[in-house]
Amino acid sequence: MFDLTGKNALVTGASGGIGAAIARSLHAAGATVGLSGTRVEPLEALAAELGERAHVLPCNLSDAEAVDALPKQAAEAMGSVDILVNNAGITRDNLFMRMSDEEWQSVLDVNLTATFKLCKGVLRGMMKARWGRIVNISSVVGATGNPGQGNYAAAKAGMVGMSKSLAYEVASRGITVNAVAPGFIETAMTDKLTDDQKSAILTQIPSGRMGTPEEIAAAVLYLSAPEAAYVTGTTLHVNGGMAML
Amino acid sequence: MSDVADRVKKIVVEHLGVEEDKVTENASFIDDLGADSLDTVELVMAFEEEFGIEIPDDAAETIQTFGDAVKFISDAS
Fold this sequence. Notes:
The complex is a heterodimer. By secondary structure, chain A is an alpha/beta fold. In chain A, 48% of the residues lie in helices and 15% in strands. Chain A has nine helices and seven strands; from the N terminus they run βαβαβαβαβααβαααβ. In chain A, helix 3 (64-78) runs parallel beside helix 4. Chain A starts with 7 loop residues before the first strand and ends in a 7-residue tail after the last strand. The mean pLDDT of chain A is 96. The mean pLDDT of chain B is 93. Chain B is built from four helices and no strands. Chain B is mainly α. At the A-B interface, helix 4 of A face helix 2 of B.
């Protein structure tokens, strides 16, 4: 349905469940994909699965210098970065009163500061091309809050405000900046929950189930497509009705 | 007019879509040539590429007019 032939997409966190699904979906629509993540092995496995038009670009987003270098590496590997998906994220959950400065800072660094730097790093090329798509993967907890996730919720809400501000600045250049806010999705991150925690969560979700990575990828694909040119500064909530925002 | 000024003028004319004779020494990109703040960022990017120089952000802020740009680039290159 959506055609991304000739577009080059950089996806961070492509070694994770949602990131891999996003990369597969953009690739299936014809895009060349740059797969970034900290763990090289799953990235190479994904690149092998995708075959042509896939580049492995390992990067540790908690390393500020590596983050600064990534947009350039991606542009060298693919020719340009037309689509940026900031999907990488980490959690360091703790009760607010027990949360250390380090737990706070590491989550802000990877989830918010790295997103800022990567957006900044790809803008020059997008401005010149008069075309660009930035999709920042936020979270439902950025809108609703979540006990034990003061750091993560702050970073994810921060991404939304940042995306809107940037969307204002670059809209006239054919660049859109949007966020996708997943609810509870079946990934390694939610596998860690106990069955009791899961069933408690499910009672809060009108759809009665967790979402799949592919359902997030579909939202990203839409926002990356030429057809979404008039959609900018928005947050697309994909959460089974858990929070209707 | 120097070679630098010619090349700068060409970039300004192309980027802002203004008449060449409007691009005078004291013409302000924003006040006289209709640029917005993002245009000025793009102009600086274009100058950097054309002349193979780095224009740091604090220097870029001082480049308000066509004359400022020509002077900065002449000094830098």
